[in-house]
Amino acid sequence: MFASFSYAQKPLKGFPVGYKVEGRDTVYQIKLRDTYLFSWPEEKKKGRAWRDFYRLVYNFRKTYPYALIAKEKFGIADSVLNSRKFTSKQRTNYIKDFEKNLFKDFEKPLRKMTITQGGLLLKLIDREIGQSSYQIIKEYRGGFNAIFWQGVAKIFGSDLKRPYDKFGEDKITEDLVIMYQNGTFEDLYYSIF
Question: What is the pTM of this model?
Answer without folding.
Answer: 0.74
